[in-house]
Specification:
With 346 residues, the chain is of the alpha/beta class. It contains twelve helices and ten strands. The strands form two sheets. The protein has a six-stranded mixed beta sheet, with helices on both faces. The chain has a four-stranded antiparallel beta sheet with strand order 7-10-9-8. The chain starts with a helix and ends with a strand.
Length: 346
């Protein structure tokens, strides 16, 4: 008798991602990976909060990784935002260890305030995961975001008016410069209930974060009030439709981003400064992407940069009336000087 359908679904999703991780690993001159040459097996980490999604992911990773010659480890991040968070993190470490993940660590972070509590916690979390992955030499970090999380992300992007890139939601594969394939999200096509069911049938203890039902948090209100209201008004299938929208939007956004990356070299002068006249000649969708790339490169956090910020910078090109410098997240300033657009940290 095979595993429960929910368990089978999450294991299959993880198995596919692990195959992709092996495919993306550097090869020896003979075309082999470290796991096939007798070298140190690649390490894949799971980011685990102790919730149902990440516990289901940790369990599937522990089951599938050894069959592919991959070491499986886990990281839990203690945000320090609730009383007893350190004890909870220690409990998550214990649960991952019981799954025979190794290495397993708890990493404490200090959450700042920039961009609001949710964005600040996210930035601190990814910073800790990056540090741990670099230190441990991990080939990838698995994240437990589900199809429901994807739908919520699309709606949040729509509410912010942040354009097609926000509507594209979370990528299945992502990461920063030099580590573009670090983060993998195996569950983006799996609903939250399937992950919870997989934990239940495997008798995996899970922790339900009270922040997930706290109406003080935007995503919590959307999860417990917004999406149910949409499904009541429009019928079932809203989550699936939003997830499809994310994929279609991502394809379009990727194409426009590639265009912007190519166009950027043609709108700079010999000193690398952006020329306003050349920027003006670009299609608006491409121009705004060039501007966003430049603002992020100057030090503005991508997660705190919204469409309204880029629209203000864009008006320095399309609606120039002698206005002063534009203040942007990350203490970045944008101003027009002598037909050039100067973007720098103040």
């Amino acid at each position: 008798m095979g595993p429960h359908p929910a368990v089978a679904a999450i294991r299959l999703a993880v198995r596919r991602v692990l195959h992709d991780v092996l495919t993306d690993l550097p090869r020896t001159p003979s075309g082999q990976t470290p796991s096939t040459t007798g070298g140190s097996p690649p390490l894949v980490l799971v980011a685990c909060s102790g919730g149902a999604d990440s516990m289901a992911l940790a369990s599937a990773l522990a089951f599938e990784a050894p069959k592919l010659g991959i070491r499986a480890g886990g990281i839990t991040v203690d945000h320090g935002l609730q009383a007893g968070s350190d004890l909870r993190a220690a409990e998550v470490v214990s649960r991952m260890t019981a799954l025979r993940l190794d290495p397993v660590e708890s990493v404490a972070v200090r959450v700042g305030r920039e961009g609001g509590p949710e964005a600040a916690a996210r930035d601190a979390r990814y910073g800790a995961l990056d540090e741990a992955a670099d230190r441990l030499g991990a080939a990838a970090v698995l994240l437990g975001h589900t199809r429901d999380d994807q739908a919520e992300t699309v709606l949040l992007g729509l509410a912010r008016g942040s354009g097609i890139r926000s509507l594209s939601g979370m990528a299945e594969v992502s990461g920063g410069p030099g580590r573009s394939h670090r983060y993998r999200r195996p569950f983006l096509q799996i609903d939250r209930q399937t992950a919870r069911k997989a934990c239940m049938v495997q008798s995996l203890a899970v922790w339900d974060d009270p922040h997930n039902i706290d109406p003080a948090y935007t995503r919590s209100r959307l999860r417990h009030e917004g999406l149910p209201a949409l499904e009541k008004a429009l019928g079932k299938g809203v989550v699936e439709a939003l997830a499809r929208t994310a994929q279609l939007s991502r394809d379009d956004a990727d194409a426009l981003d590639a265009w912007a990356a190519e166009a950027e070299t043609g709108v700079r002068d010999e000193d690398g400064r952006l020329e306003c006249a050349k920027l003006y000649a670009l299609p608006p969708a491409v121009r705004r992407r060039v501007l966003r790339r430049a603002v992020v490169a100057a030090g503005s956090p991508a997660g705190s940069l919204f469409a309204r910020h880029i629209e203000e910078v864009d008006r320095l090109i399309t609606g120039w009336r002698g206005q002063g410098a534009i203040n942007l997240p990350g203490r970045v300033e944008a101003q027009r000087q002598g037909g050039r657009l100067v973007i720098r940290q103040g």
